[in-house]
Amino acid sequence: MKNKSEHGTRRAGSGAYVFIIGVLLAHCLLIAGASFAAEKNAAKTPTVITSQSLTADNKARTALFEGSVVAKKGDMTLFADTMLVHYSDEKGSGTIKKIDAEGNVKLVKGDRIVTAKFATYFAEPEEHAVFTGDPKATEGENVVTGSKMIYYLSNDRSVVQNSRVFLVNKEKQK
């Protein structure tokens, strides 16, 4: 009898473990699904571009915006004198693949501001912008300059070539 109850206890214990593992697995799947949905929604965020003039070339799948150009997507805003927007080859999708910005380029995202003479924004595979022509990034009083700056917008990461950094130590100022 003792063996049977011990055996029965093991089964009940095994069932509890299966239940706990199932709950944990379901929780992980929900988190992964929510994360994937957030990424998908970010990709679906519309881009609004304003300018003084627009020249569209449907065959080349490009649009040239000129004069005080402002492109806004979510919490990111890109300013320039001109922007050449390259669209996806899928007809009617209107999906932006790349934006070439030139002249008085400025990207604002949160507290970070990046300025340069030129920038190329890539929507995929990983949303990022490449700045050349005296790029300079500021966040508060901190400043980073270089010859080329790549800013990965989705994970707030930067790569700077020939960098020079000026950091303000707020602790010593107090």
TrEMBL record:
InterPro entries: LPS_export_LptA, OstA-like_N
Gene Ontology annotations of biological process type: lipopolysaccharide transport
Pfam families according to UniProt: LptD_N
GO molecular function term, any single one: glycolipid transfer activity
A cellular component annotation (GO) from this entry: outer membrane-bounded periplasmic space
Keywords: Membrane, Signal, Transmembrane, Transmembrane helix
Record's protein name: LptA/OstA family protein
Transmembrane domains' residue ranges: 12-38
Domain Organic solvent tolerance-like N-terminal as annotated: residue spans: 49-155
Keyword Transmembrane helix annotated: yes
Lineage of producing organism: Bacteria, Pseudomonadati, Nitrospirota, Nitrospiria, Nitrospirales
Superkingdom as given in the UniProt entry: Bacteria
